Amino acid sequence: MAAGWETEPAWVATLAAAEAHTGYPLRRLMAGGPIEDLRFQRHAPCAVLAHSVGVFRAWRQAGLSLPRAATGHSMGFYSALVAAEVVPLEAALDLLATVEGLSEAAFAGRPMGMAFVIGVPELEVRSALLAQPALALSNRNGQAQFTVSGPVEALESLVRALQSSAFKVGLLPVQHPLHGPHMAALLPALARRMAWVTPAAPVFPLISHFDGRLLETGGEAWDDGLASIALPVDWLAVVARLEALGAPLAECGHGSQLAGLTRWARRDLKVESLQRLPPQG
């Protein structure tokens, strides 16, 4: 994950700041694991956030122009908030920790999570959910790619019901019912604990991953970030907005998850990757 980035000053400074704030040895875990420690519920989101921001800052230092707009999927939106200078890195890291802490307390003793469904039409997924009122459609990632959140027992029942018709279906390795109504009760406490943050005007617009609208003030971008834990992700709406902007698309961070999701929405859209090191000089 960190290979090659250890000599990029902007990346190193970003990771050092994240480590100082969290106390987590992110660079060591990203470079050599063990993978179980990197994937730990408290470590992985911080590593992804810091790496994405560090990659963006390194490219900016190398001369990359500001984007026309940016977004992120799920908690990846926090990286976009930092990249757009709406909030400092430390605020986004605190937001991650607060969501995790509130979720652990709220769902203690109640196994919760998310499931993915690939290759099933949305109408069929929604029809199956009628038999599982405790579940909610949490992500529309593509024309036939969805996630569902709620109690694990109900998720397992849904997986069994869709097993024969899905290309792939199963539980995701998460412990909280993100982007669904179960998280709504956490929003007042989340807002109180993060009330110390004063969002700044973004240096470029952000795209809401809830409905694809442009967020052009710091307040509405930050509010969208806070509320996002309980709002479903509609990547189809995001892709429609990106297509309307007509600018080249690039994914900033490790892997190609967003590029893959974008192709599930529109097969003809090409997404470059900024995971490769920026040109020197």
Report on the structure:
Strand 5 and strand 6 (214-215) form a beta hairpin. The chain has helices spanning 9-22, 26-32, 35-38, 43-61, 76-83, 89-106, 122-129, 152-162, 187-193, 218-227, 235-245, 257-265, and strands at 112-118, 136-142, 145-151, 168-171, 206-207, 214-215, 233-234, 249-251, 271-273. A five-stranded mixed beta sheet has the order 4-1-3-2-7. A two-stranded antiparallel sheet has the order 5-6. The chain contains twelve helices and nine strands. The mean pLDDT is 94. Helix 4 (43-61) runs parallel beside helix 5. By secondary structure, it is α/β, with parallel strands linked by helices. The radius of gyration is 18 Å and the shape is globular. 39% of the residues are buried. The chain folds into two domains: 5-106 and 181-273, Malonyl-Coenzyme A Acyl Carrier Protein, domain 2, CATH 3.40.366; 112-171, Malonyl-CoA ACP transacylase, ACP-binding (Alpha-Beta Plaits, 2-Layer Sandwich), CATH 3.30.70.
